[in-house]
Amino acid sequence: MRVGFIGLGVQGKGLAINLAQAGYDIMVRDVREEPMKDLAAVGARVAKSVREVGEHGEIVEVCVVDDAQVEQVVLGDDGVLAGAHAGTIIAIHSTVHPDTIARVAARARERNVEVLDAAVSGSEAGARNKTMCYMVGGSKEAFEKCRPLFATSGNRIHHAGELGAGIRAKLAHQVIIGINMLSAFEGMRLGVKSGVSADALEAVISDGAAQSLVADHWQNFRPGAHAMQLFYKDLRLALDFAHSIGIEMPGAALAQQLLREVLRLDES
Q1: pLDDT digits 0-9 by tens, 131-164
Q2: Are 127 and 150 in contact (CB under 8 A)?
């Protein structure tokens, strides 16, 4: 199968490497030369344009930063759709607004191209260790065709429902992470400042009802400034979408406002 992959960032590069190492005929494109050289070293073809990726791939995976980049690489004059053949599937891994997925999919249908919103969780480590979680919206047929590709990076692959269900699930997921980080930060601060050792507190929380993946490793949980930008963007999207459907989320709003402090970016 011919596969295209656009966006070789912190997460996308690992996903693309897994596809190349699994033996897929993969063509890649990024705005930076270095990750494309790394992919070439494991057997990938390197495209000169995004359009060329669209011409190559029966399935094209997109893992760029935000809504504007998704629309640019898919809908632009030299984008994926400009080169895609009828029957192509575009799987969008980027965390974007559900309206962006709907808008891109509508344009794709005009070219007989199908879109899946295939949101992912796991970041760089998940791609490297092949433990990614996929949350996918779209037709069952397109989902099943893409499943073997997704399985090269993880076996937790969920068909969430119709188009848009995957990204809505991802936004809910990010809200829970954001509030979880806030609760772990406040709880750990209370315990440590009152004299409980961080090691003892982490052990107690891990064995109690407050256990979570975030709290279990809180002392080493330092995502960094880049991750903060992505978390902030994801929470902004979630809040915007929630407001559009008439839901208030004060916890998510507070987590977003305090994100820099929660991630302890000002600590030495």
Answers
A1: 999 999 999 999 999 999 999 999 999 999 999 9
A2: no
Instruction: Please state, in angstroms and rounded to a whole number, the distance separating the CA atoms of residues 176 and 241.
Output: 15
Position 228 scores a pLDDT of 85
Count other Cβ atoms within 10 Å, centred on residue 175: 20
Which pair of tokens denotes residue 98?
């559900």
CA distance to 14, 64, 154, 251, per residue, from 96 (Å): 20, 10, 21, 21
221 Cβ partners below 8 Å, 6+ apart? 181, 184, 214
How many other CB atoms sit within 10 Å of the CB of residue 33? 9
Length of the chain: 268
Q: How far is CA 99 from the centre of its chain?
A: 17
pLDDT of 123 > 70? The answer is yes
Q: What is the pLDDT of residues 10-51, one digit of tens each?
A: 899 999 999 999 999 999 999 999 999 999 999 999 999 999
**What CA–CA distance (Å, rounded) separates 68 from 267?**
33
* Token pair recorded at residue 134: 């996929």
Domain 169-262: CATH superfamily, name plus number: N-(1-d-carboxylethyl)-l-norvaline Dehydrogenase; domain 2 (1.10.1040.10)
Q: Where in the chain is the domain with CATH 1.10.1040.10?
A: 169-262
Q: Identify the burial level of 250 via C-beta atoms within 10 angstroms of its C-beta, where 0-12 means exposed, 13-18 middle and 19 or more buried.
A: exposed
Residues labelled catalytic? 170
pTM: 0.93
Q: Tell me the helix, strand and coil percentages in the chain, rounded to 5.
A: 55, 15, 30
Q: Class assignment of domain 2-163?
A: alpha beta
